Each structure stands twice: as C-alpha cells, then as structure tokens.
Fold this protein.
Amino acid sequence: MESLSGRIVRSCAGRDKGNFLVVIRADESFVYVADGKERKLASLKKKSLKHVKPTNTVIDTESLTDKKLRKLIAEFSAASDF
C-alpha cells in the first residue's frame, strides 16, 4: 500500500460523498480523514479505503491547523475539475 498520509482524497460514499478530505493517517484498510469544518483534526473520521478516491495532491500535515486545512481544501476544490 502506498503512503496516503497528507494526500487529498474525495469521498465516494457516506454523508460526505463528493467532498474533499485530507488523510491524516492510514492503516491497512482504513484512512483517518479531516476537512477542518465537519471533521476537525481533533476528531478524525475513519473511512474505508474503498470509500475514498485519492488525488495526486499531497500536503504537509506537520503544522496543520483546522483553519489552514479549510483554506487548502477550498483552494483545491476551486482549482480541480472533479
């Protein structure tokens, strides 16, 4: 499995279907994602790998805050063609 940490993904299932999220950490079959608004960094969402579609964009999660995360996702979704 490739490293997904820091990668922007699009949700393909669930209430957040169609939204962009950032993978904070991953294990063998799940990813833990946040978007800074609905899912803050303090309470990550656990999603199955089959319910997310990875993009080619990777961000640095080292000094990430909820505000920075919201801004990055908004810029990405405005510039993407999904």
About this structure: DSSP finds one helix and five strands in the chain. Residues 7-79 form a domain with the SH3 type barrels. fold (CATH 2.30.30.30). The chain has a mean pLDDT of 92. The chain has one domain: 7-79.
